[in-house]
Amino acid sequence: MAQISPKLALTFFADISAGSPVPLDPDDLLHMALVRRHGHVVFGDIAVRCFKNKSKWTYDEREIRRAAQTFADFRLDADDVVEMHLPAYFDAADGDDQGMGYRGPAAWRPQIASWLFWEARRKHQEALPYEEWNDSWRRLGASGLPGTLTWDEFVAARSGARHRQNIANTRPLDLMIHSGGSLFLPRAYAELLDRWEQVEEDLVGRARTCSRCSAQGPRWGGWRTQAPLGYVTLCPPCSGATFQRYTGHLRGVLYDSRRMRSIRADDYLCRLCAETRAAAWDHCHDHGYLRGPLCGSCNTLEGKSSPRHFLKDKEGAALHLLECRGCLEGLTLPGRYHVALVQKHLEVSERHRHRSRPCRYRPWARHVELAHGAHRFELECWQHSTTWTKEVTVPDTLALVRDFVDQALAARPGTVTVPAQAASDTQARA
């Protein structure tokens, strides 16, 4: 089996399938968007497996050539079309995963519908002031499209975002026709997408099954964990029985110390989610101290997501950051979290006046700059199109951070031991 790099796989696939009547997006051979979910890149009804060896992802060259040739030989009669019946609008908040927040089973019709409803809502809200917004955009108009949306408006809005109109690594809008209030697709292509739904569901079904006890896990890869040869699926009990739990015994050790070079993070469970095998040692970049082993997902969330989202969305996030000896002793957090905490504080406490009364809506705060010892923020109330500025000094910022740390430590008594000197400082301030 000849293994080739993702870059070479993309070159082979693009060259061989160049004449295909199906508009393809082969860039996912590089991005591997769903590799954690089920370990494959899917083109239509063809699943190409991703392999991992020595920390590098590869493909089987024969699979790449076979898949590309299938699309090069694909037969599509542009005159043989079927009508695509647009599903009614469903809101994910109402418990249906096939609405605007599409995250349910593989289903191409609801996905296309969500694009149309999204653009109809955007047009509706841009045309009217906030007080006049309603749900008329959810209903199909005379054109067969949601609200007052026209086909030309929809095509123009989506033309600049190819990655947002991709299904099964193909582009359905390039083949779709709008005529007489109905939407049409070539029959052969619609049947291809029908087969994709089943292929995708079969892959997810196998990947969500624990490899040890066969229990069924969440659809979106919550039990998937990195391994030397890719991803494996282990339920929390099986993971707990396989990997060690981190007990904080390395707290206070510097990340780049000689001691850390001989200890593998993947011998442990992730200390944040406590469900998945760890992939890396997380450490504080401000002080250099180790915080603990994290799985790839939690480590990415801490390092690349916005600080406020990490603190809000990940349970135990603040206490994890305080595993750093420097942060704990200083009753602080890494510097990049300071602005996020001030933003949150301003959005809770600041209000402009509307019709002689404080506005009841929370504003959105954007950090502008740090100058002359103060952070300057621009606050905006979207409902009333009002903006204003607010300055918060560095000492006030540090006080807000310290209060947040105090509350985090108090909420989990016994989880983290505050050093005696830090504890006495806290009492002195009180």
How many strands, what sense, and barrel or not for the largest sheet? 3 strands, antiparallel
Average of pLDDT: 88
- Percentage of residues in strands: 15-25%
Class computed from helices, strands and strand pairing:
alpha+beta
What is the count of β-strands? 17
What is the radius of gyration? Answer: 26 Å
Overall shape: it is flat
Low-confidence stretches: 93-103, 415-430
Count of domains: 4
Count of alpha and pi helical runs: 15
Biggest sheet strand order reads 1-5-4
How much helicity do the residues have? 25-40%
Ends distance: 68 Å
Description:
The C terminus is likely disordered. The longest helix is centred in the middle third of the chain and has 21 residues. This protein has 430 residues and is of the alpha+beta class. The chain is built from 15 helices and 17 strands. Helix 1 packs parallel to helix 4 and helix 13 packs across helix 14. A hairpin with a 2-residue loop joins strand 13 and strand 14. The protein is flat, with a radius of gyration of 26 Å. It has a three-stranded antiparallel sheet. It folds into four domains: 70 residues, no CATH class; 127 residues, no CATH class; 81 residues, no CATH class; 94 residues, no CATH class.
